[in-house]
Amino acid sequence: MLKAQSPLFPNSVVSNDIDFILSNDPDTFVSLDFIGLDDKEMPDSQSEDLFDQDTFVFEASFSDGVTLEIWCHSSFGSQAAAQEYAEKLGPRLGKLPAIHRDPLDHVVIHNGNATAFAEIEGNFFILYSENMDARISTNDLEETVFHEAVHASIQEIYANDPAWLKAQNADQAFITEYGADLPSLEDFPETALFAYAYIRYPGRLPTYVEEWISNNNSNKIAFFEMFYANKIVDVLEHQNIDINIYPNPVSERLTVNLNRNILKNHIKIYDNSGIIIHEFISDNSEIEIDLSGQKTGIYFLKVNENKFVKINKI
């Protein structure tokens, strides 16, 4: 049995040959539609130009009813060239756990070659076409999308959660050097990818990696079980829970409607810093929540530890 504190890898995605996510894993991606041209904010690590005119805008649809816009930079030159990369992204988004896909606002794709990054507060991430092709060739694009989606979905809520900080402190070990170098920013998504494979697909990781995780990251794994354990997979993928909220944006009272009456729905609403502002248990499939006393901003609704819905409070 391994008993070591040193990181196993420089980083989670490109410094090893592990296939964390396989091409035949469950995929909720259904279709891609071209919406049209629009002017969009397109952050770019290779340029100071923030805004793009005539961005190619696509909408990806998923089998659970969720849709997500993909914005491709105008430098692709044609709808066909932009759509090629939006189509490459679609199935990778479809393989994400719902908890990482549903909170995303959109995804940006630039025509060029740079490393992907996320805008955590904006709930989106940025990819580059040539880097996408390179990572497809090494079977790493699924993992890249997963890593950036973790940043852009739940990190803002959970990276400073007392339960996560307690797990970090208890383990005192980082599976990657990247996570060790940036523990407050990168350890969360770096660990998440290993935890996802370890929890969801036992035996997929090499034996020595599973042994290292068991010996050195048991508390972090226990933390991620609330997202990736089989009982949550069953709720998300097999019970077909659908959450509708209205009005959104909301100024006073928010109505939460579930498509089936599940006994003891556990409702939580978080503010943008991850603090729970409402928490209660209800037997009803339709619930009203008074948000009139909350300030303008972004909030997140979570039902039964499974799924996030973004709320715009005005």
Walk me through the structure.
It is built from eleven helices and 13 strands. It is globular, with a radius of gyration of 20 Å. It is of the alpha+beta class. Strand 9 and strand 10 form a beta hairpin. Helix content is 33%, strand content 27%. The chain folds into two domains: 240 residues, no CATH class; 73 residues, Immunoglobulin-like. The N and C termini lie far apart (55 Å). Helix 6 packs antiparallel against helix 10. The strands form three sheets. The protein has a six-stranded mixed sheet. Strands 10-9-12-13 form a four-stranded antiparallel sheet, with no helix packed on it.
Large-scale geometry: globular
The stretches of 5 or more residues where confidence is low (pLDDT under 50) are: 230-240
For the record, the count of structural domains works out to 2
Termini separation: 55 Å
> How do the SSEs run, as a string of H and E?
EEEHHEEEHHHHHHHHHEEEEEEE
Structural class: alpha+beta
Overall number of strands: 13
Rounded mean pLDDT score: 88
Range of strand content: 25-35%
Radius of gyration: 20 Å
Which strand order do you get reading across the main beta sheet?
1-2-3-4-6-5
The main pleated sheet reads as:
6 strands, mixed
Descriptors:
314 residues, alpha+beta, Immunoglobulin-like, 2 domains, four-stranded antiparallel β-sheet, 11 helices, 13 strands, 33% helix, globular
Provide a short characterization of the protein structure.
This protein has 314 residues and is α+β, with helices and mostly antiparallel strands. It has helices spanning 79-94, 98-101, 129-137, 141-153, 155-158, 162-171, 177-181, 187-200, 207-216, 218-228, 230-238; strands at residues 29-41, 51-62, 67-72, 106-110, 117-119, 124-128, 243-246, 253-258, 265-270, 276-282, 286-290, 297-303, 307-313.
